[in-house]
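Standup notes, protein team

Yesterday: finished cleaning the Astatotilapia calliptera set.
Today: Arf-GAP with coiled-coil, ANK repeat and PH domain-containing protein structure.
Blockers: none.

Input for Arf-GAP with coiled-coil, ANK repeat and PH domain-containing protein:
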Amino acid sequence: MKITVDFEECLKDSPRFRATIEEVEGDVCELESKLDKLVKLCIGMIDAGKAYNAANKQFVNGIRELAQQSTKDEVIESSLTKFAESLQEMINYHTILFDQAQRSIKTQLQTFVKDDLRKFKEAKKQFDKVSEEKETALIKNAQAPRNKQHEVEEATNILTATRKCFRHIVLDYVLQINVLQSKRRSEILKSMLSFMYAHLTFFHQGYDLFSELQPLMKQLGGQLDQLVVDAAKEKRDMEQKHSTIQQKDFSNDDTKLEYNVDTDNGIAMEGYLFKRASNAFKTWNRRWFTIQNNQLVYQKKFKDNPTVVVEDLRLCTVKHCEDIERRFCFEVVSPTKSCMMQADSEKLRQAWIKAVQNSIATAFRDKGDDSELDRKSSTSTGSLDSGGEPKERSLKGESALQKVLAIPGNVCCCDCGQPEPRWASINLGITLCIQCSGIHRSLGVHFSKVRSLTLDTWEPELLKLMCELGNKVINQIYEARREELGARKPQPGDPRHEVEAYIKAKYVDRRFVRRPSDEELRSKVVSLSKQEKRLSGNSEHMPPKAPPPTPKLRPGSNASGQSVKSADSGIQNSADGSREMLATTPSNDSLADAEPAETPPMPMPATLPPPSPCKEMVFYEPKEYSPGLQLYWASCARSLPDMAEALAHGAEVNWVNTEEEKRTPLIMAVQGGSLVTCEFLLQNAANVNQQDAQGRGPLHHATMLGHTGQVCLFLKRGANQNATDIEEKTPLSIAVEAANADIVTLLRLAKMNEEMREAEGPYSQSGDETYQDIFQDFTHMASNDPDKLNRY
């Protein structure tokens, strides 16, 4: 209720005025209490809203994770992703609503209470004070004696002054009351109306959002009805099948339950057998065996690569084994080895023997007398990545995320600009949002290899690769002509099909890549071939102490210069250092058996000429300039941006320089001495075993140059350490000749592990753990602390 006070009435200071003032003061006091309560309730509502938004965000993230887990079901993935996006929009609308509540209710009403009500209270204090003074003056004036003139005059003067002050104060007080009574209406209504309009906007936005979503929801509703019907039908079929199989009598033919035959996939037989290991302990292990495509293979787990027992069944025989203690045993004998196996029953043994014999007969019938064996080492072991579970000591989660996002441009998605990306393409070296990462996956691993920055484990060399490139560098290559062509870059929230079309144009068609002219390409290649600024003065790259024999150079090359410092360099040790490093090799019996006893001790090398690093090679004018030649010299110069540019221009990652002894970019990366450069080429499908004109692959060159980190990397990536060059030298014989203890240790351990993979009993498993530990140590030292590989 609006209460106003008459100005003339206040001058009379009548009881009516005093009653009105008392009523006004009570009303204002109650108003202040109600406003304070409303502001506190608004603060509570906002805090609860923020907590609701936080919980809602976690719920939406859970929906996104469920969508990500359902990538094989396109309907669920796309639907949940769309629902998550819509719910995220609603969270944004809620945030706006709570911000408006803060401005309209809390801030505005608090200002009214603190400013206007404070002025009223101050005016009331002055009014109460002057009222008391006036009352005192009136009493004193009334009590002044008639016969004391000076007291009468004094009392009269005080009364006059007090009345004058009272009139001034009471008029101000009445003005403050009337202004407050008028303003309270506008302030309260203005605040609440603003809040209600915020609600109106919120519900309009939500209505529009879900109106767009409604067709999808109706479509899914129709599909859901059919899915319920299909699920009920499948349940009935499963129950019927379950009942039929349960009633079936397997008592006379239970052997067939122990193995499978899949003629459509060429599987003659598969099932579990016990296999006797070839180690000294002759342990027995249960493995899943398969006869398929003229081969006998086995697996420990389904995800493991099959281990080949017999590569060609035409060359083997099968026989019963009755001269050992175990029952139901049989042996498959090939020209090079034999494999002892045990079935669970006599029927199963007969079934396996018959299956092997039939497969041998079938192989001869299908292939006749053709002796060419085209299946060699494709399924054989020898890579560090297979066999057993490696011990994870690489970066994972927030550590990798922080390092990668610190690179310029990486804080937003490379393709659409979405902030806080949590995915990466490891062969491109860019960060991606979840939507773009899904599109990259659909391109295939030959275009983009996607990995999570928070969920996956990151090896140190791969993390360094990501930090060498980044969104800014790659976009300068793959979006060089985007603005020139008038192509619009996607923005966060754009429809998926638009983003997908842009990404395919960018990476598959490479529509926005600027093709260099012949002169520009020539200038780039010449510049890279002469580039020395990163080949010298870099403390990360340490030279070998006593380098191995010099690789052959073209005529005119300088073999007397300083050796290149390399992050991956191994070291040539003294005799004491060699013995010390070899002492760290696993010493259990199985490991000892794996290495021939007649291996000669490593001699001390004589004074050898320094290796021929990249910067000492003489550049000759080639017959033709090509992106492959740019990749070749950029790999030597350790320039990852130039390498990425060459690949974008169509360079073949395994390009062969016929004018330079058939060297490849990967071999030149070894010469350049960079572990990260080698990792980049391997991630882009470089062949780790491709040889040059001297018959030397990357592993040969890394061993000759003493690059321990590169040797470790190539062994992890499946390099063939048994390959020989034209001088019949293997990497191990080269390392032994050069007395490089670290590299000898790595090569011997890899060879031992390869020989021991068939026997995975409790004793040999300890050897595998030692093997993994040592390789992990070398990996971390090569990437994070290369000085430790400098053993003087």
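Follow-up from PR in the comments: The chain has 23 helices and 13 strands.
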